[in-house]
Amino acid sequence: MGVVARRGLPKKEVHGFAQAVEFVLSQETLPGPPEQDRWLVGSDPRGEGAVIAETAFRLPRRSPSPVRIYRSSKELSSSDWMGRGYRLEFSTEADVLAHLEDIRIHWVLVDRSVPVDRLTPDQVLLERTMKGVPQHWRLVRTQPITREPGVTGELLVYRAQR
């Protein structure tokens, strides 16, 4: 039996998420009691999934996981799994900062490759929050990414300043 080539199937062109994840995993954990490293990723489902999948494949062990990843689409807003009934849970940058502190987030990854017409209010609020508080969150990496052919951007990686 030979392999049948399929024509017309799009080639997946996703680059950069792996490098950002490798960078975060290579950094020392924040001082304090031993616990899971906690990340929040702000993106659409494709970007959130890319970060989660890359992390799972790169961890030295899966259970118990040394990393817990929160999705901004589920943490900063609410909706059903089909996206219906979307509601932003926080109205100000201060509210977001307090929540990130409450759930002990160490890293925030903001995906700036999401097309403008698909940005959600939680993504916009998260990016605005991160930009406005360098005393709490330091931008430590700007990773170029490609989410599909011709759709590029960057993934901003912030580290908590505790």
Structure description:
It contains 5 helices and 7 strands, in the order αβαβαββαβαββ. It has helices spanning 17-26, 45-58, 72-75, 93-102, 121-131; strands at residues 37-42, 67-71, 77-78, 87-88, 107-111, 137-148, 151-160. The longest helix has 14 residues, at 45-58. It has one domain (17-24, 36-160). 30% of the residues lie in helices and 26% in strands. The chain starts with 16 loop residues before the first helix and ends with a strand. The strands form 2 sheets. Strands 2-1-5-7-6 form a 5-stranded mixed β-sheet, with helices on both faces. Strands 3-4 form a two-stranded antiparallel ribbon. 31% of the residues are buried. Helix 4 crosses helix 5. With 162 residues, it is α/β, with parallel strands linked by helices.
Task: Describe the secondary structure blueprint for this structure.
Blueprint: H1 17-26, E1 37-42, H2 45-58, E2 67-71, H3 72-75, E3 77-78, E4 87-88, H4 93-102, E5 107-111, H5 121-131, E6 137-148, E7 151-160
Parallel strand pairs: 1-2, 1-5
Antiparallel strand pairs: 3-4, 5-7, 6-7
Structural class: alpha/beta
The ordered H/E elements are: HEHEHEEHEHEE
Distinct helical segment count: 5
Determine the fraction of residues in helical runs and give it as a percent range.
25-40%
Total strand count, please? 7
Calculate the mean pLDDT score and round it.
Answer: 88
Descriptive keywords:
7 strands; 5 helices; two-stranded antiparallel sheet; alpha/beta; single chain; 5-stranded mixed beta sheet; 162 residues
